[in-house]
Specification:
- With about 290 residues, the protein is an alpha/beta fold.
- It has one domain: Metal-dependent hydrolases (TIM Barrel), CATH 3.20.20.
- The chain is about 40% helix and about 15% strand.
- The protein has helices spanning about 20-25, 40-50, 85-100, 130-150, 170-180, 195-200, 220-230, 260-270, 275-290; strands spanning about 1-5, 30-35, 60-65, 105-115, 155-160, 185, 205-210, 235.
- Strands 1-2-3-4-5-6-7-8 form an eight-stranded parallel sheet, sandwiched between helices.
- Helix 2 runs parallel beside helix 3 (about 85-100) and helix 8 packs across helix 9 (about 275-290).
- The radius of gyration is 18 Å and the shape is globular.
- About 45% of the residues are buried.
């Protein structure tokens, strides 16, 4: 009984063999997939898949989310409308998707802060100064936090710091935790340093989601975080089609690979795989009230 709390199954990578991908997921023990939106249009697609291709599959439940990735913040500088007006309009569109979701939309996100500003594949030619970009991301994130509170939904939070110059940089993580406050959230594809993990330990509303980055040799700090965190705070994800496990580097990721992440957690905690599956599933069900 494994739950992939973060997948992007609407990506073109899955178009040719979607049914096979889903069957491999079921064979690996995946019982639930959360299909995560990253902008207005892809939030619509995520829900459409959940209500269409992913509906009525024996042994599998699927849900979706509504959200706008922090990289998308730069798009609002290209609109003719005022930034605040443009963001407000998109938030209204996200809410409309939720209202049409017939109970299948379970969170707001992927949203958050991404301060690795030298790497934006969506808008690589932006000339916006770093501080202005950060300010815009904060504004977009806060709007989605407000929406989550309005709809009484948890958040799925993206956060990344730029550690290219300072390996101890935690600026984005510090701000994310402050902005979330007491609202329930999953910290997607966790990358917090020990000082961040210590803060998370004190926040009862926060779940930490480990992706296959925990299998990468250089990421010992993530394995240490998994040891430090109690099981009541841990969930699992693939972030597929991105970030495949070490054993499949260079390949497309898919929900079936959640099994490899669960095995790593089991080894780190010294517990049977079945117990890891049961406990992480219980955490997800508690947060989303499945």
């Amino acid at each position: 009984m494994l739950i992939d709390t973060h997948a992007h199954l609407y990506w073109e990578d899955y178009k040719k063999d979607f049914d096979e991908v889903i069957q491999r997921s079921i064979d690996a023990g995946v019982t639930t997939i959360i299909n995560v939106g990253v902008d207005v249009e892809l939030s619509k697609k995520a829900l459409q898949q959940v209500q269409g291709k992913l509906a009525n599959i024996p042994g599998l439940s699927a849900y979706s989310t509504i959200g706008i990735h922090p990289h998308e913040a730069l798009r609002y500088t290209q609109d003719k409308l005022d930034v605040d007006v443009s963001i407000h309009q998109d938030i209204e569109k996200l809410e409309e998707i939720y209202q049409n979701g017939t109970g299948k939309v379970v969170a707001v996100g992927e949203c958050g802060l991404d301060y690795y500003l030298d790497r934006n594949d969506i808008y690589p030619d932006t000339t916006l100064p770093p501080e202005k970009t950060k300010e815009l991301q904060r504004k977009l994130f806060q709007a989605q936090i407000d929406l989550a509170k309005k709809l009484n939904l948890p958040l799925i939070v993206h956060c990344r710091d730029d550690r290219s110059q300072n390996p101890e940089n935690s600026e984005a993580w510090n701000e994310v935790l402050e902005l979330i406050g007491n609202h329930p959230a999953i910290l997607h594809c966790y990358s917090g340093l020990e000082k961040t993990t210590q803060k998370v330990l004190e926040m009862p509303n926060i779940l930490v989601s480990f992706a296959a980055t925990i299998t990468y040799p250089k990421n010992e700090y993530l394995r240490e975080a998994a040891k430090l965190l109690p099981f009541s705070k841990i969930v699992l994800e693939t972030d597929c089609p991105f970030l495949p496990p070490q054993s499949k580097r260079g390949q497309r990721n898919e929900p079936a690979n959640i099994l490899e992440i669960a095995k790593i957690i089991a080894d780190l905690k010294g517990l049977p795989l079945k117990e890891v599956a049961a406990r992480t599933t219980e955490n997800v069900k508690r947060l989303f009230a499945f």
